[in-house]
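Objective 1b: paired records.
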Amino acid sequence: MVMKKIIEMAVLLLCLYGCAKDNDAIYYPISNVDIETGGPALIVEEGQVPLIRSYNDEDYVLDTVAQYPNNPTLGKLTFMIDLKNQLADEEVVGFNGVGKSKLTMSLGYKDGNYSAISQVPIYTSLDVTTRYAVKLRLKGELALSGDEWMIDYVYTQLASLFQPYPPSSFPAEVFMCKGGMKFGTFDPFRRTCTFDISYDRSDLSFSQLYFNMFINLAGQKREDRIRLRIDKESFFEVYEQKEAV
């Protein structure tokens, strides 16, 4: 009888522990995501220049520490990188895509509660009636330095609102989302993800434009070093579309 009570108590504690861990665990997507919306690719006429052209003249490397602050729960971590390039042809009002990419930890678990200073659009449109075309390429590799974490899931989004998880409620505001195997190729032994993503669509309307990468990690340490290499072949272009005559 005593043994039965002990077993029942152990099962109850295990259930409670599982619920607690589920409540603490950061939400992460588990399937591939491949979304592209917008009109056909813009045919660039001779002499036509983009409103924004952002690029690198050499491979760009973000080498930083991913750390899980203020909470002892380990297992699943979620981070965001504001994707930027180091160069642009000229300064454009409202464009925030030049400089160093930064990695940010979500402190909000399942609700993606990133700090306000991290939710900065890559571009803010001065005229919401303007139609745009976006051409981009994101090529590179994401790698972990240690052997106690692994890359669980990665996805990148181009959207007219800050959407921390693959879209479900606001698909019309998401122009591109690539996640899972649609994002890149995972090597669990090297703990890397290599990727080469392109987007070329027209007839886009937005007042703000976000371009972010989201990374979900699984591991048993409080921190580890993350290295993101963005190939020099990567670029980001925005064109203002002319009205048809």
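Objective 1b, second protein:
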Amino acid sequence: MNKKIVAILAILLVLAAVIWLVFWRVEAREVVPKVTQAELIESNKSWVETKTPLPLTENIFMNLPAKDSKVTVTSSGNLVLETTNPYYLKQLADENDRFTNIKEYRLVIFADKVSEYINNSKYRYPTGYGHTGMSDYQIESGIREISSGQEALPLKKEGQTVDLKSSLTTRYANDLAKDTADAFEFDALDQGAAIDDQFETSFQDVTAYPKEFYYDFTVTKKAFFLWSETGEATITEPVGIEYVMK
């Protein structure tokens, strides 16, 4: 009987410790203050005003101001680049066959992703551990790159007016990727974006592709203090749209 009581007490103590730990972790999470739309717009305008180099791809950066190029921030806060600069168009074509014979390039970065997009090369994975439920997660290694979606988005073109209405979602390769994003509170948990974009161009051949962050990392998950697994997790997060005009 004494052994049974001791065993029951031991189980209760373990359960109490687990419950306390879970609640402590929930309470310990910092609440990040939300930025107002006006503050977001002003912040995005500052990147243009300070002439910060703008990534066109992972490896190509445009130095601002640039000839035959215009960078603006819309009333919704999106950053928009339009360029016919031969120097940068050639760099794009040399890097990717998609841009062969390109005459104009247009890049739209969603308002809430501008800062992350411009600073992507400085991105570092979270150190330490992330937590969700009763599982611990640690990112061992990985990358986050700027990439272009492979599938073109449906758009309408009437005369010189291009109209794109679509929606993009964040894609998780597996449950490990989604749980890790939750544990480390990645912004990728914002499930995507609705797009309503319209502009004018004199070029007839217009194609639109998603502009994305591609995460690829190795994660170790420890659950219930009893077992662990290490696996690869990938996330593809929409951050904007790029238009190729020929």
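Confidence is low (pLDDT under 50) at residues 16-32. The CA atoms of residues 74 and 80 lie 7 Å apart.
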